[in-house]
Design brief:
Elements lengths: L1 H19 L6 E9 L10 E7 L2 E7 L4 E4 L1 H7 L4 H23 L12 E9 L5 E9 L2 E7 L4 E4 L5 H7 L3 H32 L18 E7 L2 E7 L1
Antiparallel strand pairs: 1-2, 1-5, 2-3, 3-4, 5-6, 6-7, 7-8, 9-10
Helix pairs in contact: 3-5
GO cellular component, one term: external side of plasma membrane
Pfam families: MHC_I
Organism: Ovis ammon polii
Length: 238
């Protein structure tokens, strides 16, 4: 109970940071993964969307290893050598999530069609230089599980995340992978990219902005409301 309460407090504080705005020296980098075990036609089984300060700059197809640089922010960093190691890590993450799906999918899945797995990795640097990171996991748009990369704690926020939590909190390899990628790789990418982005983010904004939540790729629009202590957070998932 204590872990769940502290995890929710962590999540609420994270949302406050996202929605209240940040100082010019505070920045965040996020990657949204969508894993579809049975994609239709030519749809990818793994898609990744990259965001800096909630502004989309990257779209990546893990299976085909195809990358699209979006907007001025994407164009600004596409020539950097960081991309080679970054795309390898994103593909490895997609492979891991796909491989884990049979063991973490809810047993009582009654919805029509297969579930898609979404994961959102976020790392950030505050104005005072403090850094941290987190993961959010969900199925078909429903947020289920939170992971605090800094202290290694798991928090289930929906019953569909029960198997996921039971599996991953006892799997040191998976936990270490999520922690290393978010606290290590992601922070390094943010530091490298900000060399190019710092001034751009102060003076301009990308026209495409992504919401701070797990995102499905279903064609039908879904509407989900998360109710947390003292907050009602409404998110539109498309």
């Amino acid at each position: 109970m204590g872990d769940s309460k502290s995890g929710l407090v962590f999540f609420v504080l994270l949302l406050i940071v996202w929605f209240s705005g940040t100082s010019s020296d505070a920045h965040s980098l996020s990657y949204n993964f969508t894993i579809d075990p049975r994609p239709r036609d030519d749809q990818p089984w793994c898609e990744v969307q990259g965001e800096v300060d909630q502004k989309v700059f990257l779209s990546y197809d893990c299976g085909r290893a195809q990358i699209k640089y979006l907007g001025p922010l994407g164009e600004e960093v596409k020539s950097m050598s960081t991309w080679e190691t970054q795309t390898d890590t994103l593909r490895d993450t997609g492979d891991l999530l796909k491989g884990q799906m049979p063991d973490v999918t809810p047993e009582k899945h009654t919805d029509k069609g297969p579930l898609t797995l979404q994961a959102r990795m976020t790392c950030w640097r505050e104005g005072n230089g403090h850094t941290s990171a987190s993961w959010e996991f969900g199925f078909s748009g429903q947020l289920c599980l939170l992971f605090d990369s800094k202290n290694g704690s798991w928090t289930m926020v929906h019953s569909k995340g029960r198997r996921m939590r039971e599996k991953w909190e006892n799997d040191r390899g998976v936990t270490d992978f999520f922690r290393t990628v978010s606290m290590g790789d992601c922070q390094a990418w943010l530091r490298d990219f900000m060399v190019r982005w710092e001034q751009m983010l102060k003076t301009s904004a990308s026209p495409t902005t992504g919401p701070p939540t797990v995102q499905p790729t279903a064609t039908a629009s879904k509407h989900t409301t998360w109710i947390l202590p003292s907050f009602i957070i409404t998110v539109f998932l498309c």
